[in-house]
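Bench notes, afternoon.
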Amino acid sequence: MGAVLVLGSANTDLTVRAERLPRPQETVTNGEFSSSFGGKGANQALAALRAGAQTRLIARIGRDAFGERLAEHLATSGLPREGLIRDETAPAGVALIGVDREGTNQILVAPGSNKRLSPRDLHRFKHLLSGCSVFLSQLEIPLETVQSGLEAARQAGLFTVLDTAPSRELPQAIYPLLDLITPNEREATDLTGIRVDSPESARETGRILLRRGCGAALITLGGQGALFADRDREVLIPPYSVRAVDTVAAGDAYNGALAAALSEGASLLDAARFAAAAGALSTTRSGAQDSLPDREEIDALTGSSF
């Protein structure tokens, strides 16, 4: 059993909850404001930590007021300060989030110092790979940094996972570096050009991702569950039934818990079921990091551990 190393972003989330989300050029009033900590890298690192894994995060955080609070929060939450790189020039990342009464969200991100996380930074902290068994990254940082991280993790023998959020085109060179790719419906559609809205279309998409070089694909389908595919099988993993109030960070809870399970030696299917429970639980309460479930809650929903 090894630790999880997360390479990614760290933000402050500024959220407004309203009856509905605005249409273009429209203002929706009477919303309720809240501020919380977020960023896909930080969210997933804390999700893995709460799911029971020893976890390290490499992120770049500005020294403005948002950044000072964010860095202190991550450290006091249990993540090592080493790897939290302080940026003297750029402000910390900020996300503006709108959430409607159904829990649907829209997110606008100003990446700030996240945009400056570089392969050079990764090289400085390459020693953090030692003792880790799983590497997890996302796409809120420069793509060249993600690719460098995947290459370093592969060389060090770690199991590599890429959450393809936010959606963007990937160079062919990245796919063979991935032991597991975890797109949602929109991201899978954008990556392959096939509209993914059912288990059947997810199967077709999974086969394309495998042909591009991924070891396995786990395509999340919202209320339809998730489709797992590798070269030997295609398995539909059913969702857990919960009352969703906020979908912010559900994907981050999912990926962080997935990495935690894999770091403990769980099979890919068992890890995916564990992740599904974590993602479902996160939708039952508001916020990003505030919504991340702990290990006891996840085990209670699944009815067992792996």
